[in-house]
Design goal:
Elements lengths: L4 H55 L5 H83 L5
Length: about 150
């Protein structure tokens, strides 16, 4: 293995690390959107309960039909908003699921490239040690031959 392959592995590993961070930030953003959608759903549920209770209180007392109609119309609008919020929440949950799978894929790719980089460095180090060992053996043989008495 030549020494030029290590920078290539370093570059690929760095690129996969950036991709992993990008996927993690997308997951974080998707989680934030899902949390906001869940919060909207909770607020709308609370408003629906509150206005339904107010409508029931108003209906138990003397009231005008216009006032009751306004309450009912507002409750219908809240229900429509709740349906839209439910759709948004479902989409946000799908986005979170998709982002999680992207993080998993990016993490696996990053781990794979990190292992390959480690293997390349190990192979390069083993080659360097092998070359140094051969050079040391050659030097030892040369020195031995220089010190040995000439044979007749």
């Amino acid at each position: 293995m030549n020494t030029r392959s290590i920078p290539a592995w370093n570059t690929l590993t760095a690129k996969s690390g950036r991709e992993l961070k990008r996927a993690q930030s997308l997951l974080s953003a998707a989680n934030a959107r899902a949390s906001q959608a869940q919060l909207r759903m909770t607020k709308l549920d609370n408003l629906l309960v509150e206005y339904a209770s107010s409508l029931n209180d108003m209906l138990s007392k003397p009231h005008s039909t216009q006032e009751a109609g306004n309450f009912r119309q507002f409750i219908v609008q809240l229900q429509f908003l709740k349906q839209r919020a439910d759709i948004d929440l479902h989409k946000a949950e799908l986005d979170v699921t998709e982002a999680k799978s992207e993080v998993i894929v990016a993490d696996q790719e990053n781990l794979k490239l990190s292992r390959l980089l480690g293997r390349a460095k190990t192979e390069l180090e083993n080659q360097r040690i092998g070359i140094e060992t051969k050079e040391a053996e050659s030097q030892s043989i040369i020195q031995f031959n220089l010190k040995a008495p000439p044979s007749l």
